[in-house]
Amino acid sequence: DVIRDPQIQTARLKLPILAEEQQIMEVINSNSIIIVSGETGSGKTTQIPQFLYEGGYALKKQIAVTEPRRIAAISMSQRVAEEMNLSGREVSFLVRFQGNVTDDTKIKFMTDGVLLKEVQSDFLLSNYSVVILDEAHERSLYTDILVGLLSRIVKLREKKNDPLKLIVMSATLRLEDFTTNRRLFKVPPPVIKVDTRQFPVTIHFNRRTEEDYLKEAFRKTVKIHSTLPDGVYCCFDRVALKKTVEVENDALKDLGDNRKKGKRSKKVVLPEINLNDYSLPGDAEHNSDYEGSDSELEDPIGTESVVHGQPLWVLPLYSLLSVQKQNRIFQQVPSGCRLCVVSTNVAETSLTIPGIKYVVDSGKTKTKLYDKVTGVSSYAICWTSKASADQRAGRAGRMGPGHCYRLYSSAVFNDTFVDFGEPEIRRAPADDLYLRMRNMNIEKIINFPFPTAPDLLQLKTAETRLKILGVLDQNGKVTGLGRAVSKFPVLPRFGKMLALSHQHEILPYTICLVAALSIPEVLMEVSISAKTDSSDKWAATRLRWAGSGNSYLLGDNMVLLKAVGAAEFAHSEGKLEQFCAENGIRSKAVSEIRKLRLQLSNEISVNVADTDVVVDPKMAPPNDLQAKLLRQILLAGLGDQVAKKMSVDEVPAGENKAKFKYAYHANNMEDLVFLHRGSVLKRSLPEFVIYQELYETNKIYMRGVTAIEPE
Ligand code: ADP
Ligand code: MG
């Protein structure tokens, strides 16, 4: 029996879903596949698992709940544990690098990627009595695959007389993708609609759509802060996040100047803002633009001149931020302060931030675009969809009537915004998906019951690449190498590098490199446009790290290895944060690499006979021979991503030769690709190189470059 804290129980009883517990459980008990739809805040994530627990579903097996985002899996498990008065031993979470699952776990929150991995080792998911796929409307790649797989697994479990229930939970958006898709569910599953205590939200459109939406967002926030009471919440994209802080910083300087002149001003507090947190690959040019000391910001401004005496407590929220910092949004705001959360769309659906009354919506979202044929990736700031703008607005009406300020006109909203965003399955490269599914013996992937089918061209290019890698044979069958490769929780090309390293004594290096290549944005990019001291210093350090001989030819990947080793050394001396800040390394990435190295090493020790890999985080750098072997292994994994230096003779007559100094021809690409200013190989411009990926900003650049010639 669950004994809840009276205060929690009172709060629960205010949710309309509680009154419907009995009807909901009747539908669940008498159907094997159920859809639950309701707006954010209706109590789907926190309450349904508790209903199931109290209904006896955790007596023999576990209740699984998947979330597309790590933050949500962790924080929802904590919230449910708290509501049920149970510990993390019973209501637990498991995400890629972290977890607190025990033998006593009854409810297990996990990311959709983690459950997909479990399907690979136990197709029937026999540990679970119920699987809840939460946030299905987000249409994340793994949730989409899981919906398809589970529609079949439920039938198999039925045949075995060991029934499994599938509950798909979604906002009210686009439910038809699940209900009317006959290939997915032959009989449309019952839909339980959950009410939300939603207060009216007044939508305010801007009359004009300002070009500089960051400035506009800041202006609007300050205006709300100085004229309206209670909490604020902003929703931006990641770039906006960083720039907002900069804009704010400038504005603070103005406020400070005004104060000296005895004018009125407001106090804004920016806690522990570290601008390194805001760096992104597509935004590399701006990384070091920020000059300004945080201590200035905390300089108290005389209260007598303040309009509304309350300082603003500004907290950033985005997925690359460390969990501790993310959790600050749930902590007590310093006394007398007012909370303002500046967030990416992480906060759009899964998380409940208490007390939000105002939403400032830039209408923008940052999307990774991926060219299906060439594989070039780029980031673009685009308008979000109507559906997600409405989700953002809905955030303001949880505790009472609220307001949403849209920084764009109603005409832009009506004419330019699409109704829904594209599901991830149609936007991401399909290599990993393709190999995983082939490995689960799914023959014709195009016939698989996805909620939305992937693009045919995308599947074809994935198949070709996997054949080149040798993980599929010419008939599309998974090879021995392919089976070895798919054991690893990394992209197939990196799995191949691991599988091949077994034969040499360089496995610990490959593990480290693969781990580092699998974590996004480990090194901050050296700035191209703004020549600043720190970015010059980073460039010099990286050149030193590259060394000479084969080590230098290993190029950017040698730098990555050295950076990880050096950061681990600093970590062992308790100086990780400082070292990372000085050298342009993201410290959260260092700890994620450490965990992934351990995971990969364990995986190899378990699966490969006579191999016992011990991870020494701060291992010595590879010697010349080892560096040479690593180059060959990289070539095996990235062999389809080769580029050849453009020769001077090719420069069209009349063109400036300097413009083509760093230009390369990549295979299968018409456009030229370039060596980035931040690459250590730009000193020697090798004839042939391989690269980790191509990305486009003002031109197409290669990232993670290694020389394959000269030998
Ligand atoms: P849904 O999954 O339908 O979006 P949730 O189950 O996440 O809804 O949340 C239901 C309600 O529980 C919220 O409206 C809020 O009142 C409360 N709640 C959820 N998480 C928290 C939290 N971390 N702190 C305080 N209240 C919370
Ligand atoms: Mg939810």
Automatic annotation (TrEMBL):
Enzyme nomenclature, EC number: 3.6.4.13
The molecular function terms in GO held by this entry are: ATP binding; hydrolase activity; RNA helicase activity
Q: Which reaction does it catalyse?
A: ATP + H2O = ADP + phosphate + H(+)
Helicase ATP-binding domain location is 25-191
Q: What are the alphabetically sorted keywords of the record? A: ATP-binding, Helicase, Hydrolase, Nucleotide-binding
Q: Any signal peptide, and if so, which residues?
A: none
Q: What class of enzyme is it?
A: hydrolase
Keyword Hydrolase in record: yes
Per the record, the domain of life is Eukaryota
Domain Helicase C-terminal, chain residue ranges per copy: 251-441
Family as reported in the entry's similarity comment: Belongs to the DEAD box helicase family. DEAH subfamily.
Q: What is this protein called?
A: RNA helicase
Q: Which organism is it from?
A: Cryptolaemus montrouzieri
Part of the intact protein present: 251 to 961 of 1097
